[in-house]
Amino acid sequence: MGETIGPLTGFLAVLLIFGGIPAALVVAYSFSRKARHAERLAMIEKGVDPSTFMNEETSSNTALMWGMLILGVGLGSFLGYILSVFTSMSQQYLMPALSLIFGGLGLVGFFIYRNKSEAKKAA
Length: 123
Hints:
Blueprint: H1 2-45, H2 57-86, H3 91-122
Helix pairs in contact: 2-3
């Protein structure tokens, strides 16, 4: 009995990671699309134009935000690795800490950029 539990546990773990998590993401995405569709239909029924709530600029800003976040995390990881190689600091603590710090700095940079671009459009 004990000989079959080990491989079975490993198989179930792999199945959960590569099957369960993507399935959960697909189900969550489909429910959000369904809710958005129902919301737009309700707005149309009430006479509200749903295109007023859609912003074309949002997709480009979202891409920039994710790009700056990922760039910050990558830069923080790289800097953490370099510091751990050339100093006696532990890589175990240094890399996650610097990744979070630089990822946050990337988001702050995006926030500043977005506020400046909105101020230019308003002026």
